[in-house]
Amino acid sequence: MPHETVTTPEQLAQLCEKISNADRVGFDTEFVSEDTFRPQLCLVQVIVGDHLAVIDPQQVSNLEPFWRVLAEEGHTTVVHAAREEINFSLTAIDTPPAGIFDTQLAAAFCSTEYPAAYSSVVSRFLGKKVLKGEQRTDWRRRPLSDEQINYALEDVRHLFPLHDTIAKRIEDHGRTDWLTTETAEFLTEVVSFRDRERWRKVSGAGNLGPRGLAIVRELWRWRQAEAERRDLPPKRVLRDDLIIELAKRRTAKAEKIRAVRGMQYGQLKKATEAIAECVQRGLDASTDDLVSKGGKAPPPQLNLLGQFLTPAITSICRSENMAASLTCTATDIRDLIAHRLGFAAADAAEPALASGWRAHLVGKLIDDLLVGKKSIRIANPRKEHPLTIEPV
After folding, report:
1. End-to-end CA distance of the chain
2. Burial class of 228 by CB neighbour count within 10 A (0 to 12, 13 to 18, 19+)
């Protein structure tokens, strides 16, 4: 596949100039994430106009000019499943690329599959097959073969036709504003996720009481800082099961910590004192924010209504050529029902289905069903979408 290989700052500057003069650019990345704190960027594939390029970060160590030109307003940045690409830009310049059009996200507004793989979206919207065969490549190794480069370039070669086709279908459905809103919310979520403390995701934490959770929180914070300092995946610094075991034992005595199976080796043994200090902070910490507020259990009819409406709403989404998995979850439906019937907590946030495009597509339908203005019936049991919602 004809392309330019960017291996010098001068070549990168020339590519950035092409991008700055274009109204549309597409890009993708290849990275390896299993051995470092953050994913290791190994290759950047770019399409601008009819020009294909691959940037080798091992040769061009400073990619800041590339990320800065992507962040400039005035162009559309076409990507697929862009979470990591956005994160690379945020790490480099603390700003995401401008004018994001994510073909995975956009496809959900005019098809029923989400999240869809790049190959699936290309097949669905363009009727083409993408190259396969290099999914297990270690992108850190050099030199890369022609087959590996072609495989990487395949991920950008179809981006512009996808952009044209999907954007037109979304416009025909009258959903362009919906996509704009969802893209902005997606960007906000990616940015906020970077700083979010995810210590409650430690496997086994859900079975602990407030004091145990306080210890988990302190150990998780130490693990994150240590992993970043040593550039290692956090679980290689301290496994989840060891965090839970230390939280259960509730002891800050170094000798008892070293007695836990798995704590006697290498860097963990050297870090015993630091880990003991974490446990002690957890033992001393206030648990007011960790005590369950309880509240009334939802009435049984709430789950019954949710179970009844979920497949109907899924069928409606599919009939509207909209991905149900992006539109709402079963929990979203139950939250709206609880809110409308007065079962929601006083400080509960507004349900996701109560406003915006989700309210337009399904929230108002649920409202009408709850008050008896509409009903669900089986229109044709032989059809792909057998259910219909009709006025009473």
Report:
1. 59
2. middle
* Among 10, 55, 285, CA closest to 156: 55
Q: DSSP character for 2? A: -
Yes or no: say if 202 and 246 are a contact pair by the CB < 8 Å rule: no
> Of 66, 65, 92, whose CA–CA distance to 77 is shortest?
66
Taking only the tens place, the pLDDT of each residue in 218-266 is: 999 999 999 999 999 999 999 999 999 999 999 999 999 999 999 988 8
Mean pLDDT for each 10-residue chunk of the chain (392 residues)?
Answer: 94 98 98 95 97 98 97 98 98 97 98 96 96 80 94 96 98 98 97 93 95 98 97 96 97 95 90 97 95 70 89 91 96 93 84 96 95 90 84 90
* Residue 36 CB burial class (10 angstroms; 0-12, 13-18, ≥19): middle
Pair of tokens at residue 47: 């399409």
The residues with which 28 forms a beta bridge, in sequence order, are: 45
Instruction: Name the nearest CA neighbour of 15 among 70, 61, 59.
Output: 70
Tokens representing residue 27 in the block: 């890009």
Beta bridge partners of 51: 48
Distance from the Cα of residue 21 to its chain's centroid? 31
Rg of the Cα trace of the chain?
25
CB 128 within 8 A of CB 122: yes
Instruction: Give the other-Cβ count within 10 Å of 25's Cβ.
Output: 27
Provide the pLDDT for residue 302.
87
Answer yes or no: are the C-beta atoms of 306 and 334 closer than 8 Å.
yes
Host H or E run for residue 104 = helix 103-107
How far apart are the C-alpha atoms of 312 and 232, rounded to whole Å?
46
Cis geometry, peptide bond prior to residue 143 (ω within 30 degrees of 0): yes
Q: Which amino acid is at 349?
A: A
| Nearest alpha-carbon partner for 341 in 308, 374, 303, 375 | 303
Neighbours of 222 (CB within 10 A): 20
How is the beta sheet containing 51-55 ordered, strand by strand?
4-6, 51-55, 40-48, 24-32, 76-79, 100-102
